[in-house]
Amino acid sequence: MPRAVLLHHELPDGTSHFDWLLERVGGEQEGRCPTWRVSERIDRGDAGRFSAERLPDHRTFYLTHEGPVSGGRGEVMRVASGVVREMHEAPEMVTAVVAWDTGATVAYRGEPTGDGQTWVFRATPTD
After folding, report:
1. Contact at 8 Å (CB) between 19 and 26?
2. How far out from the chain centre does Cα 78 lie?
3. pTM exceeding 0.85
4. All structural domains of the chain with their residue ranges
5. Residue 102 neighbours by CB distance under 10 Å
């Protein structure tokens, strides 16, 4: 099953955020994970509506990596991991259902805003 991870990313300047990665399985882009920067934990099912910054795809290496990020870009620590039960990806929308190790299963639906970098997601707990 494809994996999901939420990493707490501490930057050298003392600021931090979370990186949310979803694993792709099959197709040309296998081995690359769509990734968003978020300001809050989104793995508990109570995130509701949240904004996210689309980052370049990350390597699957980051699904299991904890520690220093290359190039002096800080450190990451995994705060949650899970299994992607389903995912549909298109330039104008991403949907995913993730069963997190926190016990929550969450359905996400995201769409980019006009600039294409900022996305707005709706997170809904599932039964």
Report:
1. no
2. 11
3. yes
4. 3-125
5. 16
- Beta strands 67-68 and 93-100, pairing class: unpaired
Determine the residue type at 30: E
- pLDDT, tens digit (0-9, with 9 covering 90-100), for 73-98: 999 999 999 999 999 999 899 999 99
Task: Say how many C-beta atoms besides its own lie within 10 A of residue 64's C-beta.
Answer: 10
* Residue carrying the six token digits 């968003």: 36
d(CA 121, CA 47) in angstroms, rounded, equals 9
Residue 107 and residue 124 in contact, taking contact as beta carbons nearer than 8 Å: yes
In contact, 8 and 79? CB cutoff 8 Å: yes
Number of residues that this document lists for the chain: 127
